[in-house]
Amino acid sequence: MTILTKNIPTADIIVEAHERIKPFVHQTPVMTSQSINAISGARLYFKCENFQKVGAFKFRGATNAVFSLNEDERQKGVATHSSGNHGQGLALAAKMQKIPAYIVMPENAPRVKRLAVEGSGAEVIPCKNTLASREETLQKVVEQTGAITIHPFDDYRIIAGQATAAKELIEEQGQFDVIMTPVGGGGLLSGTALTCHYWSPLTKVIAGEPSGADDAIRSMKAGTIIPCPQPSTIADGLLTTICERTFGIIKDHVSDIISVTDDEIVAAMRLIWERMKIIVEPSAAVPVAALLKNKEEFKGKKIGIILTGGNVDLDKLPFR
Amino acid sequence: MTILTKNIPTADIIVEAHERIKPFVHQTPVMTSQSINAISGARLYFKCENFQKVGAFKFRGATNAVFSLNEDERQKGVATHSSGNHGQGLALAAKMQKIPAYIVMPENAPRVKRLAVEGSGAEVIPCKNTLASREETLQKVVEQTGAITIHPFDDYRIIAGQATAAKELIEEQGQFDVIMTPVGGGGLLSGTALTCHYWSPLTKVIAGEPSGADDAIRSMKAGTIIPCPQPSTIADGLLTTICERTFGIIKDHVSDIISVTDDEIVAAMRLIWERMKIIVEPSAAVPVAALLKNKEEFKGKKIGIILTGGNVDLDKLPFR
């Protein structure tokens, strides 16, 4: 373990993370939409991480983690369990550093996702589709290979990497009244909150969260982490539960978390597809759904929204 | 009629058109995709007219035509028959100039399209879904209102407007080995061919055309316009037949037209959606399908592709 995993990232640590990953990640474009501005009554700036490598912001954190390893750790490689964007991000970051990567994936994961991870040269280790099986299998892989486990969000190197999306947004577009993200495990939200705390302290950080996976809202109310008993939402990137590291930052630096239903998420996703002509995944539409649900609160404000990713299965779209 | 409609646009006329429309159209971004480069073996630069106002390049030509009217013509307004992008483009351009617009549309046109046109303040006049009814109805509208008919492509003002997409592409990204567009009525293709002829004479202009609406290929072979008897293709923007004005330019300045099937179009469209995370309509995927069908011909070359539009009905997507 390096020092980076022990403390909440400072401004210097986030600057370092940004310098470290800058040559390897896309500085994604910021888009605006006159028609969604008109519909919402706010001035919106969309940071398009759906255009990031592997199609999601997760590549930022994964790259920062992998590129932070020392020589000894590099030899052993990295491992995680993921059927989603973190697995793909970690696999590609490991490929760029020419180190081994082991990705534990449920055997029922979509073939296209497995192929994408394998395409980056990572080894895919199948497991049963339960959290217990995922964790056990990962444990075995780590014992056998000595690989370093890179958690998708419970890791300050990951949080510092995700913080760079909002940092780029502010550097390019100046100060915002509000910056919005979705919240799943809280890596992006906590990183965004740190960035605003350090470089734009008057900016409110507000998250959207699916009502079917509302552990962050429950936890904010209770002041302690309360998992959602049976999380279920179309926003498949947000099924995870926040952890001590992310919640510690979120409770101090996030102004509000707004709950949205799956119908509201799909409607927001459709609006983005139709008006902006870009593909975002359901999770990415969550803050837009939160904004449209609370128009009065955001009226006339300058709002940054991080569009987190664009990985959808075109064979299973929620439009009818 | 102004002088602009009487002669093939000169370089000066296209420069004038560009200056005229520049403050009102988006200078659309140029995107690249490492993965589609790897798949194709070529270096591709995508001019994203799917991000243009009304979601298609058609707004360029419509704006040039509307903004070229003299005071007397402005008073009378403009008219066309269109269920697609030209109708929307003309309606918005007319709105910007605060002049009346009359758009004849088949009564079975999608509600969302009718609403979009009406949303720009244009008057929608319903007709039966036949070319005869469209033309008759338009004729009546013109007789009643004195409005100036703006044809979607058989008009040198339109051609000069469409020529500005390739002009921007070359100005931003330098010379190309090849620039590709689809061909329907030929407005974009002939405009692109003129731009290359004037400012990048070593660039080959190559089009893709749906095999189910292959009037341009038939006409190139025959040396005279041969309509396709019963045009049918998923690329609904390309059902139209080239005309004397566009064919006159195409036969002199276009190197090749490549035929592609609907399956090839859908596969190319899917590739763009999945790899680039942007929404393009079937017509826009046609040149990409043509490129992928002839990889050897394009290998290692620097290729500009005009992605013509992004207006799809999300309820009727061709993916399974």
TrEMBL record, chains A, B:
Cofactor: pyridoxal 5'-phosphate; Ca(2+); Mn(2+); Mg(2+)
InterPro entries recorded: Ser/Thr_deHydtase_PyrdxlP-BS, TrpB-like_PALP, TrpB-like_PALP_sf
Tryptophan synthase beta chain-like PALP domain mapped to chain residues: 22-309
Protein name as catalogued: Pyridoxal-phosphate dependent enzyme
Keyword Magnesium: yes
Keyword rRNA-binding: no
Keywords of this entry: Magnesium, Pyridoxal phosphate
Gene3D superfamilies (UniProt xref): 3.40.50.1100
